[in-house]
Amino acid sequence: MNTPLVFKFGGASVKDAESVRNVATIIARFPDRPMVVVVSAMGKMTNAFESVVAHWEQQNVSEAQQELNNIRAFHQGIIDQLFEPLPQSLLTDLEFWYNHLSEQLSNTSRSYSEQYDNIVHHGELISTRIVQEYVNLNTPAIWQDTRKLVRTDSQFRRATVQWHETAARITKAINDDRVHFVQGFIGSDADGRPTTLGREGSDYTGAVFAYCLGANSLTIWKDVPGMLNGDPKTFTNTTLIHQLPFAEAIELAFYGASIIHPKTIQPLQKKGIPLHIKSFVDPSAEGTVILESEAAVPQVPNFILKRNQALLELRTKDLAFIAEHHLSAVYQLFAELGVVVNLMRNTATKATFCINNDAIIVPRVVQALSDNFELTLVPDVELLTIRHYTEEDVARETEGMTILQEQRTPETVQFVFKS
Ligand code: ASP
Ligand code: MG
Fold first, then answer.
1. In this structure, which residue's CA is closest to atom 8 in ligand 1?
2. pLDDT by residue (tens digit) across 84-101?
3. pTM metric for this prediction
4. Third-level CATH fold of 302-418
5. In a 10 Å sphere around its CB, with 0-12 CB exposed, 13-18 middle and 19+ buried, how is residue 145 labelled?
6. CATH, domain range 5-216
7. What is the per-residue pLDDT across 117-170, written as a single tens digit (0 to 9) for each?
8. What are the structural domain ranges in the chain?
9. Among 180, 173, 132, which residue's Cα sits nearest to residue 151?
10. Ligand 1 contacts CB of residue 46 (under 6 A)
11. Cβ(11) to ligand 1 under 6 A?
């Protein structure tokens, strides 16, 4: 068997009938087989399923069912536009899932997280089944159940992939020269219970399949021309990056470049599998390739803005120096509460942390630390990171800002400023 090509299509690329047709056209352009196609839930369906779970949690079964009816109507609208006549086997599969979903609403024993995965993963099942049925009209394509392929632990809503078993299952299942449709974002645990890998996890699923199959490449199809050196919604005059080293992509994801899911790169880097980011609007355009290389092409500064941050400043109550034991206690608390630290700095008597301004977690942090520290919290700040900066970039981007904190290395400069 040839080494496969792995494609990933996100929710925006399958948001209506016309986009599904476009996906089929893109797949047909690539004769390479086998091909694995990872697809997310259609459009905003994951959010819709989340609200089903929220109603269930509130014990509003009828509202949960109403939301399910809306979800069903949304998909049926797309099916009606794609098929003539309507394919019976597709309708039967969907009917089975909708009935199953309705039955789940009366379950009162599951934890919120387990029920979340149990319900939300249907967005991917339904989406992939519809797209596979449509593609199969012209290109031989089969549907496969990722729950049987991606084995995870039982940490619902943020499950960890168990690589060994997953690789064994995937290599066995992807075994003929067709297009194999699989679901992103989902898996199942040792007891067969559905799990999810965390929101926006489908890119990572693409990397899991590419890694396990030793794929030629992974291509993530997006509504942008590739990776730019800054989010065009925030920065002006952005440039398309043609080529980016794996190591640099990991750094950019770490600093918050939202186009790459942070966990996606490492498996690919391990096996030297290039990651292409291409536009589903303009599929013949070159896009961006992330691969093992020395430097980015072109070499441009990168601009990353993280909004909704909080700046937390700690001082010892007795003006003692901030020492290792203070910091280790603080980090232990952060780990327990799941606090994400985006910038940290300490001086003799002060430690400052820029953290995600989570409405639930930040008050808990403040509460837990105020016994031992004098504490100042600035809740509405933003964090600007510029990699490979010039002084000109810094002057232009920070003009008029009230800068609260600045940190520089020769490669990277970061500013925390008031929103
Ligand atoms: N459908 C899931 C989400 O919206 C996973 C993904 O799209 O990557 O988070
Ligand atoms: Mg999605």
1. 200
2. 999 999 999 999 999 999
3. 0.90
4. VC0802-like (3.30.2130)
5. middle
6. 3.40.1160.10
7. 999 999 999 999 999 999 999 999 999 999 999 999 999 999 999 999 999 999
8. 5-216, 302-418
9. 173
10. yes
11. yes
